[in-house]
Amino acid sequence: MKNTLLCLGLAVVSAGLLALKPADTSVKAADAHNQPDSKSYSLVKVYNNPDWTLIPELSADSILWEPDCGIHAFAQFCYDDSNLYVHLRAVEKEIRAVFTAPLSPVYQDSCLEFFFMPDGGDRYFNFEINPNGCLYIECGHDRSDRFILYRSDMQERFNIRTERTENGWEVYYQIPLDFIRLFYPDYVFSGILKANVYKCGDQTAKPHYLSWNPVHSAKPDFHRPEDFGTMVFTQ
Predict the structure, then answer these.
(1) What domains are defined for the chain?
(2) Interatomic CA distance for residues 121 and 46, integer angstroms
(3) CB 19 within 8 A of CB 12
(4) Residue 5 pLDDT more than 80?
(5) pLDDT in tens, 105-158
(6) Which of 135, 59, 55, 54 is nearest to 90 (CA)?
(7) What is the pLDDT of residues 192-222, one digit of tens each?
(8) Which of 20, 67, 157, 222 is the one with CA 20 to 30 A from 183?
(9) What is each CA distance from 86 to 11, 42, 96, in whole angstroms?
(10) Chain CA centroid to CA 152, Å
(11) DSSP per-residue letters across the chain
(12) Contact, 46 vs 79, CB < 8 A?
């Protein structure tokens, strides 16, 4: 993939973040709206380390573009004053985990993805991760205007932890509020997020596409903020 090295302002440069712009095509994030079948999820506030046994779980149970192959995906989210905490898990027996290098196309591996955007925002983030903890992040308005975001300390910055389970794999990470503020300077964890959760694996033994909120597209395309659901920050 050809990329152009760009700067997203002094705040991003000083934070040690590189932004690379790829080429693609799609819909403006600012045009996102709720579909009639849009789902919602409550984001619970925590005051210590998350106790995941107490956090509601959502299911990415919309099967898209390929027949059901028995792969399932689930997610939990919570937050405190400083971080959004993410726990994603997959029921997947034939795991593909090839990529370990930064900027790798992890969607070709067994992959779990979280896309989100502050309510009223015009740019969304996509966090894509494989069982090796190889994280790929972008931010932008649409498929044709997104920046790949890279830090040399991704593992530490997002506190990434992955585990193999009896029937698949899972990943934990956290998204610092100050990271989101590089793009939304006045942002706080309140109100709602527009978001979706995905599971894919383009080069796995059983290619598949799953989502939490349904995706209204005739061909594979997760970059559709108009299909995001709603996550509500609760106290």
Answers:
(1) 4-233 (2.60.40.1190)
(2) 25
(3) yes
(4) no
(5) 999 999 999 999 999 999 999 999 999 999 999 999 887 888 999 999 999 999
(6) 59
(7) 999 999 999 999 999 999 999 999 998 988 9
(8) 222
(9) 25, 13, 21
(10) 19
(11) ---EEE---HHHHHTT-EEEE-------GGG----TT--EEEEEE-SSS--GGGS-EEE--EE-SS---S-EEEEEEEE-SSEEEEEEEEE-SS------STT--GGGSSEEEEEEEETT-S-EEEEEE-TT--EEEEEEEETTEEEEEE-TTHHHHTT-EEEEETTEEEEEEEEEHHHHTTTSTT--S-SEEEEEEEEE-TTSSS--EEESS----SS-----GGG-EEEEE--
(12) yes
Residue entry with tokens 């559709």: 224
Q: Rounded distance, CA 127 to CA 77, Å?
A: 14
What tokens appear for 1 in the block? Answer: 């993939």
Give pLDDT tens digits for 87-109: 999 999 999 999 999 999 999 99
